Amino acid sequence: MTYRFQTPLRTYLGARRLGNLIAVLAILVGSLAAHPAARAQSLGTPSGVVLLTVSGEIGRTNRDGAMVFDRAMLKELPRTSFTTTTIWTEGEHRFTGVDLADLLDAVDARGDTLRATALNDYEITMPVEEARDGALVAYAMDGEAMSVREKGPLWIVYPYDSDVAYQSETIYARSIWQLDRIRIED
Amino acid sequence: MPDPRPEAPQSATPATPMGRLVRLLRARDRQRAITLVVLGFLAVVATGTGISLYQQLNDLRAAPQDSVQWSLAQLETDLLHLEVAIQHAEATPGTAGIPNVRKRFDLFYSRVQTIRRGQVFADLREIAPVGRQLQQLQSFLETTAPLVDAGPEALARELATVHQRVDELLPVVRDISLAGVRLYAAKGDTRRQNFVDALLTATAVAFVLILLLAISLAVLDRQHRVSLRRAAEISHSRDRLSATIGASLDAVVVADADGRIVDWNGAAERIFGYSRGQAIGRDMAYLIVPEGAREQHRRTRRRYLEDAHRPADTERFETHGLNADGRPFPVELAMGVSRGPDGPIFIYYLRDISSRIAQQEALVAARDEALAAERAKTDFLAVMSHEMRTPLNGVLGVLDLLERTGAGRPAAPLRLDRGRLR
Fold first, then answer.
1. pLDDT at B226
2. What is the maximum span of chain B, computed from C-alpha positions, in angstroms?
3. Which of B151, B331, B337, B384 could anchor a disulfide with B312, C-beta 3.0 to 4.6 Å?
């Protein structure tokens, strides 16, 4: 009875239902695309100055068996930010960047150990699962890009103020500034 | 009838025991107050120590000691790296070595900012020469940065100037590092000493607390033993009491303030015909007091309930009880009152006196019977003597006549003494 006549309204409704379906599909595809592995493929190659090189046991590469990032590519990754003080600066600062976990997902990290090295060859290693615990690869402080003279361009920071667990010597040592390269090892 | 005797000793010696009790209470209060003060003091000390320990632990956990020392040591290293980069650039033709100089300059710049701004270096900056030296570093950075930022060729031309400034800075940087080592070593010592002190205090407090705990445990144990002994004594005396009551020939009935039976001995079972189980909890006035005596029973109880200090009557009196068959029978009753926290408890001693009454009645009957028999005999004799005298008078008259006349005198004269017949 309801479907006896194909009125314009019903056509419109049908079209809307189809539209909804398409929208749902689009969201599904989008969320699939948002999956780290799928997303990494769409990162492409850097067009600007390379800020970070990730190498080692990773599933996605874009140059010479490594994944290199410029600022634009990093900004395409899921953005995380928090406000905290640090023991090396004065006052509170808002740090914006990529959660290290998201970065590891983006390069499809497969190893167990993360070795991060700074411009001055300061180097730290940490288990990959611990690297996924709150560390932020910050590319901006208070909304501004950081120069090398201000511990930039990349700085691994933790939300130190949010938990005393982030105020340990180990975490301070892992807070590597002027981050240059990351190597994922077994 | 209140017996005046129990009151006399109470009113005669009230001061001594009462005074002693008050003194005891006061002494106990003082002891308690002292205990409370000591405990309070210990609690404050323990809390203070705990808080201080917690803070110091937090400080220890959060203190970026190693990071600070590292950063200070790196200050000199970074400057030396810059110098090496400059020397390398000077030795290299063209501007090939310049980017490395720039990088090393930037890293040194960053390091100086960390020490100039970082929270953890605040106390280092407060040392007067260090503050001045840091200012010196900053002015080097500010004057040199334009040269570094001017471009590779310009920097290449000014390398010698930069090199000279770096050389001048080296002893300054070394002084800062050394000042840092001195400061943080002293701070570390103080921190450790404070921590050790706090730990020692905590240990002392814990020791005192353990001691107190041990003492209170000992006191508790003593009290436990005393109470055990007392419980045994009480149980013993209760056993003795119940044996006494159980063996009593008189019925012993104990009732509470509401008249409910709370105890009922073997003699009561025999006399009234209710078992202990049947009697306990029942209203005494309805169970064993005949209807005629209930009002009297209630009045007596009420008198004790209204006057809390009324001493118990010690008189015995006779009344009637009601047995399980519903038959009233005479009893002799004595009553005691015991006052407890839940009100008075009434203790009734009842003796079945029906056999005694029966014996008394039999005795009275026997006496009455004996008296009646005696009276009957007397009456009989009186009647008999009266009745006998009347016919004998005739006989005596005839005999008198015969004697006087002498007619018909028998062979053996009959002598009759008048006196015997009277």
1. 94
2. 221
3. B337
